[in-house]
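Example record used in the benchmark description.
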Amino acid sequence: MANIAYIDGQNLYMGTAKSQPTWHVDLKRFRVYLKEKYNVEKAFYYLGYVQDGKDAESLYEEIQSAGFVLVFRQHTSVMLGKKKGNVDSDIIFSIMKRLYKKEDFDKVVLVSGDGDYKMLVGFLIEENRFEKILFPNRKYRSSLYKKLSNKFFVYLDDGDIKAKIAKR
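Model output (structure tokens):
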């Protein structure tokens, strides 16, 4: 059986953009890395803010052509125009729904440094359904993961991983 991946798009982008020096993920290379390293068959890329324009359109095309399933966070009309993604609850719900419906996948790979996923990660580890959490940035990883065993996480900004997935 194959694994599935969930990417918190805003967290991935901000984690690499805040790095010193700044770097960005090559999405095609990242998708290949997820497949080869973690046997990820399906990878869901969550974005929270839907903006109009050519920049947004080219980003969406890049995400999809790299092989990710693009998922947008729904916002009320009051929230439109605000830049907060807040896809955490959508990702958590989607994973729990797949488990509840006994969908055919082995384990979850999560890409985020956000502490909001801590309870989910703990539960998935208990259920033997968790592969890894990939932290975009060592410096901005939530302190809630301090006690997480290092067999369950990696940093995307580690030299060897970064060399495989960074835009050149």
